[in-house]
Amino acid sequence: MGEKTVTIKDVAKEAGVGAGTVSRVLNDAVHVSPKTRKAVELAMQRLGYKPNAFARGLKSNNSYSMGVIVADITNPCFSKIIRGIEGTLQKSGFGMFLFDTEMDEEKVTQSINIMEEKKVSGIFILGEHFDTKKMLTDLYVPVVTVTSQIPICGYELPSNFASITINNERAAYSAMDFLCKKGKRKTVLLMSLADDENVGKARYQGYQNALKEHGIEIDQELLFFNQRLSMESGYECIYKIHEKGVDFDSIFAVSDLTALGAMRALSELGYAVPEDIAVVGFDGIEQGAYSIPSLTTIDQPRFLMGETAAKIMLDMIHKKKVLNREIILDFEFVERESTGK
Amino acid sequence: MGEKTVTIKDVAKEAGVGAGTVSRVLNDAVHVSPKTRKAVELAMQRLGYKPNAFARGLKSNNSYSMGVIVADITNPCFSKIIRGIEGTLQKSGFGMFLFDTEMDEEKVTQSINIMEEKKVSGIFILGEHFDTKKMLTDLYVPVVTVTSQIPICGYELPSNFASITINNERAAYSAMDFLCKKGKRKTVLLMSLADDENVGKARYQGYQNALKEHGIEIDQELLFFNQRLSMESGYECIYKIHEKGVDFDSIFAVSDLTALGAMRALSELGYAVPEDIAVVGFDGIEQGAYSIPSLTTIDQPRFLMGETAAKIMLDMIHKKKVLNREIILDFEFVERESTGK
DNA sequence: CTGAAAGCGCTTACAG
DNA sequence: CTGAAAGCGCTTACAG
């Protein structure tokens, strides 16, 4: 890339200054006289100078890059968050390594290994991962989780952690309260983890709260835990419950993709949505706005979550005091056709 | 990350060899006696040694990282390709920088800048981009395009280029031939670029070929070019054509997302799919299999395309002779409900 | 505010 | 097959 590499020395000679000075204008940290700065900048431009990231990193130990670990990159909810992160990082000149783990333990380990070698300045974790906590706590870089949290209950939040979420308990409560008010009493719950001291637990709590408030008992037969949050899993769950002959009048899936898969199964099995079965999803992905029927959902501000995560991360690595490291953004309950709008 | 960094010197001392030797086992290029190798490996393990990517890169100019430029990461077609690339690269210990450009000229430039600084060993381009050719030809790294091609007609393909596509002309032909045989004579065409010496041109050619063969004249009113391949654009096109009162009996969208958006608009406007209007998409994303009705489409082997791209790239940077650098993978025409199955 | 110099942790001819 | 040494292109105290 570029014929002969032009180094800081070339620039220094061209500008008639020392190499250290060029370095200083590059990192514009210390004071450099405006005049000198100008001269150096001109020289850099004339020579088409590009700093060598390796050399910079070797000395400063700052890689100008970050890493993102995502459970499922094909889920549009996550890709939208990634877009938010990437755009923000790019503006600050950071590169973003991406690792798609499919929740595979080994891939997570390998990803972390690569990130260590690359000396990323920070790691983002999107979605639920088993046991990442263990691996990450002895890393010394900041970690920001998005949509999920690292379960560190009972202890003070380590200064290198932050999380961007919505209030998952209230979100799940909203969805269920809405369904209950519609007269639904038999809601199938499609969940991933529910006992993780984390998002899953909060959502399940919201589910329980709403039912309790409406005087409805929980029916174990309607609960599906540990599901992968894919279209396929939603689809299969509905077939399963139908085959078992369990009666139900609505579905609350903790992911739009899963809800969409469920709707497809309902259609194949001859249930009408929303007449027979009302469906509520979670995430707010675009596909839910265009599906037939369109999907009622909890809209997480995905792009904003990504942006916010990146900004906080940037603050953390610049050693700024970040006092609010457990950020809870507003969600929006979006009513659409799948619940009869 | 790691308390005190253990360097190659520490390993050398621990193993009782020279630093150069440690380096040699690390890069297992040159011959090292099995005995020495063993000793070094043991020492590395004992000390928990992690090579410093900066130092390696500075000397060898090999970053062990690649860059991916994608037009729209929220499109599941691309994210599946990315999964294929990432998985393959990871196995070889490469990190993958991701840049989501949304086809914005400036973001592309900035992305390329960052990649130059990071000295990525190769660049993948997914989807259509305007004028990337210009920027990339003076880069000295290999470039592999996936789903699209860099238009270099009339010249020999530069040795640092490769492309992974399907036969887009035949694919589009298949879709249109199928529609024509169903008796459709007024197919709305939803395209992005059509005059780009590239994928778009090929697809449009296939469209024309099929119509010609069936003795159907092209109706300009049915042609939508330069569309963004999103759900929204598909949706809007249908509203536009409906408002103009143009008669049509089917839709061929060059992207599943666009087709899905179109189906939503049709539903809102009271058209029945497939009874009134047949719809065919392109890409083969999962969402099309679960939509209601399910979507007939051209299935591009997305994951395989990503894997193949990464493998070719690895071959190219390892200076292996790659004779087949314009790889054309098989597509599959998948018939579903949106055309009456 | 700025220059000279040391050194970050590797790789790679150069000898042997 | 292996060791000693130079050097990759920066950054950063240290002086001034």
What would you note in describing this structure?
Two copies of one chain form a homodimer. Chain A is of the alpha/beta class. Chain A folds into three domains: 8-51, Orthogonal Bundle (434 Repressor (Amino-terminal Domain)), CATH 1.10.260; 65-167 and 302-329, 3-Layer(aba) Sandwich (Rossmann fold), CATH 3.40.50.2300; 168-300 and 333-339, 3-Layer(aba) Sandwich (Rossmann fold), CATH 3.40.50. In chain A, 44% of the residues lie in helices and 16% in strands. Chain A is built from 13 helices and twelve strands. In chain A, the strands form two sheets. Chain A has a six-stranded parallel beta sheet with strand order 2-1-3-4-5-11, with helices on both faces. In chain A, helix 5 runs parallel beside helix 13. The longest helix of chain A has 16 residues, at 76-91. Chain A is elongated and about 85 Å long. The mean pLDDT of chain A is 90. Chains A and B meet through helix 4, strand 1, helix 5, strand 2 and helix 6 of A and helix 4, strand 1, helix 5, strand 2 and helix 6 of B. Chain A binds a DNA duplex (16 and 16 nucleotides) through residues 5, 7-9, 17-24, 26-27, 30-33, 36, 51-52, 54-61. Chains A, B: One of its GO terms (molecular function) is DNA-binding transcription factor activity. Chains A, B: It holds the Pfam family LacI. Chains A, B: InterPro entries: HTH_LacI, Lambda_DNA-bd_dom_sf, Peripla_BP/Lac1_sug-bd_dom, Peripla_BP_I. Chains A, B: Residues 6-60 form the HTH lacI-type domain.
